[in-house]
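User: Quick one: structure for sequence A, then sequence B.

Assistant: Sequence A:
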Amino acid sequence: SLTTIITTTTTTITITITMSSSLRNAIKRTTHKERSQPADRTRLGLLEKHKDYVLRAKDFHKKEDAIKVLKRKAAERNPDEFYFAMEKKKTRDGVHEERTTEQNKYTEEELKLMKTQDLRYVSLKAQTELKRVQKMKETLHCLGAGIEERKHTIFVDEYSEAKTFKPETYFDTPRELIGRAFNRPKNSQLEDADQLVGVGANEIDYDEEELRKQQERRLKKVAKLNRGAYKMLNEHEERAEQLKSMTVKMALQKEISHGKGVKKKITKKNKDGTVESYFVWKQIRKR
């Protein structure tokens, strides 16, 4: 607070003015800055500040206390201590191995999904994946279309015209290019070198062997795309099946944990050695 003394001829008056917090913050204060790393020590990295030292010290003392507790437990350990669970536990290269039981039959990804998401989310993802699989199945039958030899039907008026019909004359193109469905220039275009893009008129080769190799390359490319698409389809089908099984298991767990009525767990051993467990609810007459 700020105190002001006002003196008069008769009395002394003391006036006290209380400053608000916003006014107090408006007054410039001395800024205390910590020095940075000197230029000749920049190779050592950033200079450790007090807050960094506090965090490092807390972490060090925490580890130190944990080591002290472990040493005390090891010193006070009873050598005759025994539990039946010790018979099934083992270590490999000094590292303890967890037991593989029914509790750990799910993968880490499935456990994370089951713990963080609920049944509705998994059901939604299963439906989404199933629709994606159906859509891929509907479109995959189009792969490879156009591999078969295409046909072009020409209609004529007379039978004699059909017997003397020549496709190279009708399409006005060389006989070697009749099998092409695209890029089939006419004779007039081949005669004019200016209409050819990138190739001279005398440099064109209509070798059937080259055309066959091009067709084989196209077929190999389509087959590669086909294999990749079906591989992706199989992966999506497996994921859809996993999500579906997870949905059933989560629904069963929810029914078991939250279901009403008296239930009994029955464990059955199959002929192949596998164990199957299921629940039976006691029948209650409804009024």
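Sequence B:
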Amino acid sequence: MKFTNLSLGIFAATAARLPGGARAFSSTAAATAAPEITAARALGGSDLIVSEACLGTMTWGVQNDRDDAFAQLEYARSKGCNFVDTAELYPVPLTAPEWKAGNTELILGDYLQTIGNAGRDELVIASKIAGFFPNSPVAAERAVPPTDPPPDCRLDRDSIRQATHASLRRLQTDRIDLMQIHWPDRYVPAFGLMNYQHEQKRNDAIPIRETAAALKELIEEGKIRYIGLSNESTYGVCEWVKACEELGIADKLASIQNSYSLLDRRFDSELAEAVDSYNIGLLPWSVLSGGLLSGKYRTGSKKSGIASDANSRFNKYPEYMTRWSPKTATEATLQAVEDYSQIGEEAGLTPSQLAIAFCRTRKFIADNGSVIVGATTVEQLKENMEPFDTPVELSEDILAKIDEVHMRCRDPCCVL
């Protein structure tokens, strides 16, 4: 499905102004200059019209420089992708010598300046505010010059406003279309952890309603348009819906960005029911499990897809994302990768294409979500965009084989 300029103009006209007359985006530019958006859909219950693929950016500033990033953006846009996801914390990993919080936003901001207001209006820009992070270099970079000593990242009103204003400055834009909470202020098991550890619960967590109220203020000021969650639990989603309903902004909660892939299907259960009930779209992150599902780290003659090189994430940073790094992942994880790769080969697909095709056809993504895909080279991005350019429908036989591997080894990359 592709939205034409005319249909985009209709959607744009309904959202061109926010309460108080604040500018949300130029409806005229969106209606006359926007290219066709591949497999366009409304994100969640919002009027944000996004492409099926969302361009991930977290390597920009460490593994990728400004020229690399610009080339990726140009290619993604040429394929009908209008949705770009970033974060104040990016790039990653934080252990890289050249890491500096906000550098990815700076690169994206430079690009937005080169394409002008009309080009900016064609894009949906999403960013994220970091959750609880004591003595955080991320929070330090919200000020110019950076705050020393580094303050904590929290989700109170002042922190939300400081983070948003810093992102707006770096992105060189007057609004962020989707502002997401990167992870909660309260304790939750996240980033591959499954079990709730009661002893880690903190009593000083910022109430969700306070965070939501701060975001409401920014919506009313025209600085953000919609709210998204990330690395959130079913309980958290329900509390966010409750808070937004009480504040009169239930229609502004559009999405959730959680881990989802062939190696991590935890979202299939209670969270799938919750987002379906509340019309919240999923933006799955690491659909290739940091690149492990691409097949490029398979050994010997089994290598498939685009070969890894010295700049590949797990070659350059073998201790990063240890649950997926081929040097530290469990044998069960590596075996599952091998099994999924073979299923893909039997279907005439590269491992990456199978992994992405599986995610893009899940109902909680296909109906009102978008698949985040990233790469360190344009060549990789081309392979990762192929399942959207030439959609692959997985047969019942292939899906049954995928489920067989999953039932034999459920979510092997997750730990207690």
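Residues 1-34 have pLDDT under 50 and may be disordered. Residues 271 and 301 are 39 Å apart (CA to CA).

User: Thanks, that's what I needed.
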